[in-house]
Design a protein that fits this description.
The complex is a heterodimer of chains A (86) and B (199). Chain A contains 3 helices and 3 strands, in the order H-E-H-E-E-H. By secondary structure, chain A is of the alpha+beta class. In chain B, helix 1 packs antiparallel against helix 3. The chains are: A alpha+beta (86), B alpha/beta (199).
Chain lengths: 86, 199
């Protein structure tokens, strides 16, 4: 759940706000391993820090800008302690 | 233009992208070798679970200050979907960098995310930071073929239950605009088998 009843989400969201990341919550258009994790009762969020990137998964010429990759590390450096210190 | 090739995190990502963990009939040994090396560098213990033979799940664990609390799972899958190599501008398992852009199968889905978890932990540890909750980094097989021999079976094991996970992160999708997309649910998947007996 992405509301105040999930303290991990609250921590996730507050870090995103602090870093001024614009979040867009949606239903995943396909299926990932998260469905098995959720099925056993564990809240799970699907998140890959790749904005300004065309959606090319499974496509030819799948690519990612190196600076977007490095920025993603910066994001996890803040995000991981936030959810792990709940 | 920054010379990203000399950036250690980028070099580390490219090493992972060069492993041909591509469907079908994947041998995950090379991924395990790569990930074990990462864990040694991070100073983290590793466990490998085969809920299904030859479909290993590797878990690196960073124990928290309060290890009895529910833990955090950072999950990623090791496999990638096939390629039509002739349709690629650059070889899909070379991880070439052109004008600051990395071209490779798996660079969006989702080897990058796995390496980002590793690099973030590396940086936190190097700063002497300790976390309250235990962190588990899991690397699972066969997500791209439905996870039936991967995460689906792993979650049923005692090993998984013993990780005592309270919250998990896994892959999302790229977003062409300024936003970061967050997924809190998925569509139901209904696979339909069509049999064409021919004439």
């Amino acid at each position: 759940k992405t509301d105040n009843t999930n303290p991990y989400w609250v921590a996730f969201k507050s870090v995103a706000d602090e870093m001024k990341l614009k979040l867009d919550c949606r239903i995943f258009p396909g299926g990932t391993d998260s469905r098995y994790v959720r099925r056993v009762g564990i809240p799970a969020i699907g998140f890959s820090p790749m904005n300004h990137t065309p959606i090319l998964l499974h496509d030819h010429d799948e690519f990612l800008r190196a600076d977007i990759f490095l920025r993603g590390i910066d994001i996890y450096v803040k995000l991981i302690p936030a959810v792990a210190n709940v | 233009m920054t010379d990203y090739a000399n950036e250690p995190a980028v070099a580390n990502l490219r090493d992972y992208l060069r492993i041909r963990s591509v469907h079908p009939n994947i041998n995950y040994n090379e991924c395990l070798t790569y990930l074990r090396r990462q864990a040694v560098e991070l100073g983290l213990p590793v466990q490998v679970v085969e809920a299904v033979p030859r479909k290993p799940v590797l878990v690196m664990t960073w124990e928290g200050l309060e290890p009895n609390l529910p833990s955090i799972l950072l999950n990623s899958h090791m496999d990638v979907v096939p390629v039509f190599e002739k349709s690629w501008t650059y070889p899909p398992f070379e991880a070439r960098i052109v004008d600051g852009v990395i071209y490779a199968r798996g660079v969006q889905d989702m080897k990058t995310t796995g390496v980002q978890y590793i690099e973030a932990v590396r940086r936190l540890k190097s700063r002497g930071i300790r976390l309250k909750r235990t962190l588990h980094l899991s690397f699972v097989p066969d997500e791209e073929v439905g996870g039936h021999n991967g995460m689906s079976e792993f979650v049923k094991t005692d090993h998984f239950r013993n990780l005592n996970i309270g919250f998990a992160l896994d892959e999302g999708l790229a977003s062409p605009d300024d936003n970061f997309v967050v997924y809190n649910a998925e569509r139901s998947i209904w696979h339909v088998t069509v049999t064409c007996p021919g004439k």
